[in-house]
Design goal:
Blueprint (H helix, E strand, L loop, with lengths): L12 E5 L85 E5 L30 E2 L7 E10 L2 E8 L13 E8 L11 H9 L8 E7 L2 E7 L5 H7 L6 H20 L2 E2 L8 E3 L10 E3 L6 E2 L17 E4 L5 H4 L6 H17 L12 H11 L2 H4 L5 H11 L9 H6 L16 H10 L22 E10 L5 E7 L4 H10 L3 E8 L2 E7 L6 E7 L5 H9 L3 E7 L5 E7 L6 E6 L4 H9 L2 E9 L2 E8 L3 E9 L4 H9 L3 E7 L4 E8 L8 E6 L4 H9 L2 E12 L1
Parallel strand pairs: 1-27
Antiparallel strand pairs: 2-13, 3-4, 4-5, 5-6, 6-8, 7-8, 9-12, 10-11, 14-27, 14-28, 15-17, 16-17, 18-20, 19-20, 21-23, 22-23, 24-26, 25-26
Helix pairs in contact: 3-5, 3-10, 5-8
Length: 706
């Protein structure tokens, strides 16, 4: 996967959204383009574009492919059979139920998120007890006392947790001198130990003594196992919720909220995010001990750094094949494979709190290979008002704030804690201690925290009202002819294309909406000849292979909701080899594989929920990245722009929008790029852009709003 590069952005980059619906417009007469520049000779009739209309003749049998051409089977992707890498950990638990509920760590997600890879639901990082070496009957690591391995508490990720009892001595309930401890075993051959001790050990080394994180007293390797010796804790919030009839009072949930926020603040201050916040990972102290009402956050196996050693925030990236966390409680950004940051822990905490109050989340119950995709889609489509309709107002306010946070935004922890002040009862009635929250309040004047006068409310990103729009991308170019047609029926395509060819124009991009076509034709393509096919098949394999044999390459594709497609192939491109794929899900895994082979995405389209992606060698790009979301990914696109990337391909279904952003080998003199989102085809706005020498470079129709 290409990585982000840092560079100075010298061009103005703007993204504008037009929310007001525009009245439907009939097909317009093409605008008269400017005459050709002096010294440019229009192509002769023999060199002008040729068309191959669908249905006029049966395609010939495929010929042997010439060198430099690659074809990909058009069948939907099978599920990946290779077990993906995973890194997961198990926290110290007081009951077996606490461990590993649908945990998936750093896995390739295929139909679970409409992407290539294995289904998230099928991959649970749990050791196979039948093949693992039995855990030692007695344990002594480092300078620890000797412990007898007692009953098993549970397992999850790639670890197992047992009770350990001291062979001799020990009088305390917690600490290094405790009579009873928790022993966490991870086998040396587990995925998390491929390179030595588990990654979780590094996190505990950095966090040991952090507020709300259980203490690790000893660690080391004995035989085939890496072993942690930790404090024993009590029941998890999941156990407490079950014991209370699967419903919690607002007072208890508010106490959990403020103490959970406090623990996360301390964790974040150390430069880490937890990555798997959920009821099973919040535990109380041992029953009957002075800390039996104290809250702890366990399981650091998925923790990651949000802050680099130098103090700056980690770089933004999106890897749609990577998912870390638990499907039910994961943030939307985690589902989409974005780099983890502080906002993700807080969003997972919000889902945890709402679950404890309501007893159920709207996305529970999905099963099968598409579970992760459907859960993420449901999260995006559920507004805070709908999700929190049975919760006190502070929980809705908390959810709205954390789901609108930016990638590197610093949370206002004191403000978040203050939201729940009115729900917390007197100290004698508190089922959970809120020591950490009180310290935050004393330090920062929590009770006086209000919205700053100059702080404007953020625009909501989850409205619960999905919508589709036209997405158009404009690049700065020297003055040239450009012409557009939209709402074009199948029978009118040839007329518009032939007229454009006669005027020296070639198709640069195509799109479809409501089974009608949009054409963009201009004089700046550099093509010398062009053919096209309108086919009832999405990317007609035989016809494409036939044109490849004639040295044509795919330069534009579009698909309609009824499954038909428009494929444009041209001569005069720099491409030396092409490959394409049709998939029922966004084929990120295949794209990533082809990147490593020297290909880059040069065209994309959708037909219904199917994706078609074309990749070419010698495309003129040095690097590419993907932005994939259930709405227009404004923040991601702007971050890519800031590092020198430009949108080069777009496509969207009724569920998702995808953008390919590329780093050109040769930077244009003017790097200006703008995007526009409109309910109707942007005919009037295109003319305004032309006046600024901004020309349509890519266009599609699909999901932009949730």
């Amino acid at each position: 996967m290409p990585e982000l590069r840092s560079s100075t952005r010298q061009a103005r980059l703007r993204s504008k959204k037009l929310d007001d619906p525009q009245p439907g417009e009939p097909p317009v007469k093409p605008a008269s383009p400017a005459p050709p520049r002096a010294g440019k000779r229009a192509p002769t009739r023999a060199a002008r574009g040729r068309k191959v209309a669908a249905g006029k003749r049966a395609p010939p049998p495929p010929k042997p492919r010439r060198k430099g051409v690659e074809i990909v089977d058009l069948k939907a992707d099978p599920a990946c059979e290779d077990p993906p890498k995973a890194v997961a950990g198990v926290g110290v638990a007081g009951a077996a139920k606490n461990l590993a509920l649908n945990k998936v760590a750093q896995v390739g997600v295929n139909k679970g998120l409409k992407m290539d890879g294995e289904s998230a639901e099928k991959i649970v990082g749990v050791e196979d007890d039948s093949t693992a070496t039995p855990v030692p009957e007695r344990v002594q690591v480092g300078n620890s006392p000797e412990y007898i391995t007692d009953r098993k508490l549970g397992k999850g990720g790639f670890g197992q947790v047992y009770v350990g009892r001291r062979v001799s001595g020990g009088t305390a309930r917690t600490g290094p001198d405790a009579y009873e401890v928790a022993l966490k075993f991870e086998h040396r051959n587990s995925k998390g130990c491929n390179y030595g001790p588990p990654y979780e050990w590094q996190v505990y080394n950095a966090l040991n003594g952090c507020y709300g994180i259980p203490s690790v007293h000893y660690k080391g390797r004995q035989g085939d196992y890496y072993i942690l010796v930790m404090d024993m804790l009590g029941p998890s919030l999941w156990d407490v919720w079950n014991s209370m009839g699967q419903a919690m009072s607002a007072n208890m949930a508010a106490c959990i909220a403020v103490e959970g926020i406090s623990i996360l603040e301390k964790l974040h201050s150390k430069g880490f995010v937890h990555g798997d916040v959920k009821p099973e990972n919040f535990l109380l102290g041992q029953a009957g001990s002075p800390d039996d009402k104290k809250l702890y956050l366990i399981d650091l196996g998925l923790a990651s750094k949000w802050r680099e050693t130098g103090g700056h925030h980690v770089d933004y990236d999106q890897r749609p094949d990577i998912f870390r966390g638990t499907i039910r409680y994961a943030s939307v950004h985690a589902h989409l494979g974005r780099t983890g940051s502080r906002r993700d822990d807080l969003e997972s905490l919000a889902y945890t709190l709402i679950f404890l109050i309501r007893g159920r989340l709207p996305w529970q119950g999905y099963q099968g290979d598409t579970k992760s995709f459907l859960v993420c889609k449901k999260k995006m489509a559920t507004s805070p008002e709908m999700l929190c309709c049975f919760c006190p107002a502070p929980f809705k306010q908390f959810l709205e704030i954390v789901t609108n946070m930016k990638f590197d935004e610093e949370p206002n922890y004191a403000k978040l804690i203050s939201l729940f002040d009115g729900l917390i009862e007197s100290p004698a009635s508190r089922p959970i201690r809120i020591d950490g929250a009180l310290k935050v309040g004393q330090k920062r004047g929590r009770l006086l925290v209000n919205l700053e006068e100059d702080e404007q409310p953020k625009k909501k990103v989850r409205l619960g009202s999905p919508a589709a729009q036209w997405i158009s991308v404009y690049n700065a170019r020297r003055p040239m002819k450009q012409r557009y047609h939209y709402n074009v029926a199948d029978s009118r395509l040839s007329q518009h294309i032939e007229k454009g060819n006669e005027d020296g124009l070639y198709i640069s991009c195509v799109a479809s909406a409501a089974n009608l076509w949009a054409l963009i034709m201009d004089a700046g393509t550099g093509f010398c000849s062009q053919v096209y096919e309108l086919s009832p098949v999405f990317l007609h394999k035989d016809w494409i292979m036939e044109q490849w044999e004639k040295s044509y390459y795919i330069t534009a594709i579009a698909g309609s909701t009824n499954g038909s497609s428009l494929v444009v192939m041209s001569k005069g491109t720099p491409y030396t080899q092409q490959s394409y794929k049709v998939s029922e899900s966004f084929p990120y895994k295949w794209i990533n594989k082809k990147w490593k082979e020297g290909f880059h995405v040069t065209s994309m389209a959708t037909a219904g929920n199917r994706w078609g992606v074309v990749m070419s060698r010698n495309s003129g790009y040095s690097n590419q990245v993907v932005e994939l979301d259930f709405l227009y990914p404004s923040e991601g696109i702007h971050r890519r722009w800031e590092t020198g990337y430009r949108i080069t391909s777009t496509a969207a279904t009724n569920d998702q929008a995808a953008f390919i952003l590329s780093m050109p080998k040769r930077k244009p003199m003017d790097e200006t790029q703008e995007t526009l989102r409109t309910s109707a085809f942007p005919s009037g706005h295109v003319k305004e852009k032309w006046a600024k020498n901004l020309y349509i470079a890519s266009i599609c129709f699909g999901r932009t709003v949730c």
